[in-house]
Structure formats: structure tokens, C-alpha cells
Amino acid sequence: MRAMILAAGLGTRLKPFTDHHPKALAVVNDKSLLQRNIEYLQHAGIQEVIVNVHHFSDQIIQAITNASGWGANVTISDETNEVLETGGGVLKAATYFANEKNWLVMNADILTNMNLASLIQADQINSAATNHYIATLAVTSRTSSRNLLFNDAGHLVGWKNNTTGEEKWVNQSASTQPYTAKAFSGIQIIHQAFYKALAFTGKFSLIDAYLQIAATHTIGCYDHSDSILLDVGKPESLEKAATLFA
């Protein structure tokens, strides 16, 4: 299985560090977030990784070159001219995944000890049981400003901003059915059918793409609330990460 690390974001929440560096190179106990996540993927047997870059892209490319990819075979997806957001970044990498049935995508600023083998197994079970299966999204029951909404079968039906009250549904009937709110972990396994079902081009988010696709296809979830998950997007989160990840 191949993987993609999304590292092109501006990292505005991590200022002032990101005024001069990309967030993927923020350091936790002498290792950058990018190094930690490449090693995390390697522990699950994933050696082929593509990393998209935009903000201070030269620094990320240099770090990967200097470290020889930390033992992985790392390819760069260059978004220097325009950051394409999460969905656009995955779309730009389509040729890299052309021969893959499915692949893993994760945000560069996420640290977790989630068992990737369990996520992969859950995806295999989900896809075998359901036609037109597109993706398995890692989620937890933690408190979040935004939630993904899943029906009783564990399939994506909507999204909610808990701060503004804004809601998005895959169809009108979904809003009238029982649902469970989960917080997205920024980690997912995507299937090749994603590209065929996708109606977006250019710059767009994966969440908007999933909501569009889930109207006609199935997107499932994998709850790993029993594991550590940290969004290392703020300076105080880096401090906390140093106490959780050696």
C-alpha cells in the first residue's frame, strides 16, 4: 500500500513558527512531524510515500533529501504555485496511485498511536460488505468544533460545524434519520473509485468531496477512540506532544 502525507498547508495556527518554516517540520522531541509520520507509516509496512508541498516547500524537499526519506521512498507532489487544499492535493496525486486499489492519506500535523493494521483491516471488511465503497475515515468520539455525521450503519451522511451550527447533508432525507457525530482524525483509506466518482476539480477539501460522493456511494468509518490522537496545529499542542511521543 502507498500513502500520502498532506504537508502543503500554511499552518497559520502554528505561528510564529510557520512565518519562517512549514508546519510539517515543527519538532517534537528532536524529530519533525514529517519524520514521525513517515516512520509511523513504515511501522505499518508502508514504504512508498508521496508528500505534497507548498508553504516553504524548499525546506521540506531539503529535509527529505538530507535524511534520504528517513528510509522510505518519498516522492514530492509540488503545489508551490498554488495550494490545492486536501482534496485537490489528492486529485493532483492521481497518477501516483494509478496502480493502487486503495491507499492511505493523512495530515502532516497529526500524531497518533492508532494501529494502522486495524484501520486497514476495518477498511477491508467494510468494502467487502458494501457495494460502491469509496473510503474509510478514521474518527474518534472526542469533542471537536466540527463533526462528521454517520448513520446507524456507520456510513457518512453529513457534516456539522458546532460553532456556527452550519450543516451539510449528502441528501435531504439524511437529516431526518438518526445519526452519530464523530470527530475526523485526518487519516483515511481511499479507494480507486474515488477518482471516478469525484465531481470536483482544482482546489477543494476532501470533506466536501466525501459529502458529494456519499450521495451515491458508501463512505465508512473506523473509530479509534481508545488510542492517542493529537492535532499538533498550535504551539501548546507541540508542548503536549512532547509529553506523549518520545
Quickly count the helices.
7
Most strands sheet: 10 strands, mixed
Please write the CATH class name of the largest domain: Alpha Beta
What amount of the residues lies in strands? Answer: 25-35%
Radius of gyration: 17 Å
Q: How does the helix and strand content classify structurally?
A: alpha/beta
- Uncertain spans, ≥5 residues at pLDDT below 50? none
Q: Report the CATH topology name of the largest domain.
A: Spore Coat Polysaccharide Biosynthesis Protein SpsA, Chain A
Cα distance spanning the termini: 27 Å
Helix content: 25-40%
Lay out the secondary structure.
Blueprint lengths: L1 E5 L20 E2 L2 E2 H11 L4 E6 L3 H10 L6 E6 L6 H8 L9 E6 L2 E3 L3 H14 L3 E8 L5 E5 L5 E6 L5 E3 L10 E12 L1 H5 L8 H8 L4 E6 L5 E3 L3 H10 L2
Parallel strand pairs: 1-4, 1-6, 4-5, 8-13
Antiparallel strand pairs: 2-3, 6-12, 7-14, 8-12, 9-10, 9-12, 10-11
Descriptive report:
The longest helix is centred in the middle third of the chain and has 14 residues, at 116-129. Strands 1, 4, 5, 6, 8, 9, 10, 11, 12 and 13 form a ten-stranded mixed β-sheet that branches. With 246 residues, the chain is of the alpha/beta class. The radius of gyration is 17 Å and the shape is globular. It starts with a strand and ends with a helix. The protein has seven helices and 14 strands.
